Input
Amino acid sequence: MPTYGRQPVEFVRGEGCYLFDQDGEAYLDFVSGLSINNLGHCHPAVVEAVRQQVGRLIHTCNLYYTEPGGELARLISGSSLGGKVFFANSGAEANEAAIKLARKFGHDLGGEDKHRIITLAGGFHGRTMATLTATAQPEKQAPFTPLLPGFTYVPANDIDALAAAMDADVCAILMEPVQGEGGVRPLTQDFVQAARELTGRHQALLIFDEVQTGLGRTGRLYAYEHFQIKPDVMTLAKSLGGALPIGAVVASPRYSDVFTPGTHATTFGGGPVPCAAGIAVFQQLTAPGFLDTVRERGDFMRSRLERMLDDGLLTDVRGAGLMLAVDLPRPRAAEIVSLALEQKLILNNTSAETIRFLPPLIVTEDMIRRVIEFLKIALEG
Ligand SMILES: Cc1ncc(COP(=O)(O)O)c(C=O)c1O
Output
């Protein structure tokens, strides 16, 4: 079905930071399958883990334990909120589970009255009906009304609006620490702090959607670490399975037993193969120096982009780590992305003015230089 505006290219192979078309032409990938191929394409450790697991055990369903599921849950929980994990199959499903967890938490505490969920304007949480309702972007929601009841939208970084929206009927605030699809817009420290305090005061959950920001993308294992707070619940997906489909919800110990047997489920979720891949991903991300290099490369790219602000070629540079975006003075972003493709560079635009950069976390300075040189020439033209 025509749900995607696809670029005119077909890829047949991927290796490291490059994709290859049918003619063997190499394309430098600064999209990473939308922050999925964060270790680069076909990382040998991921390929080997999948190869071994697929020959040993592919699926059991969640009526039984498997070792990779337990181990990946331990790695996620141990590196973040310390509680239990529910595995889903995508970002939307992870958020759907988090929304249900918040509603059940509200029910357990205050009955149906405590059901309202606050999300941020311009955010993105997925395309299922509940996550679309959480996605406060009217143009995406319009063809699918009526939406779910019980959601309130607040402008990002507006503390007064957030405080005004909070009440005893709120069961959760759900937000991305850096809005990804909305154009790479980080939340401010003060706003996140206010959300932490307000949720505490009103007995509501603070849920971070780290589907795009999580697992090293912003230069920290989790983006919440930039704000010196911890959420109560966090969702992950995208790069978690080394490019195999998997999502996860992790809750702090206090909220780990909100779901009880029979209250939520999925047949595929947490299967041994994507979990084995996820364990390999964690081993790479937590290798000594890995995240230091992500931060260095991110700083390098950001500083080179900021020089283009001085030249008037860009009007804004923002983001964290290797999740960066620039605004152009004119609405030429789609044209620049097409031009890049002609020159065997893969870029992405989130709007007519905004180009987003999500290179693999293993990107080199030379690769970044190539993209900067391309941008300079394209924007001067
Ligand atoms: C922050 C965020 N949440 C949720 C999603 C939805 O994830 P999926 O496409 O795997 O359903 C995305 C996808 O871009 C995302 O960026």
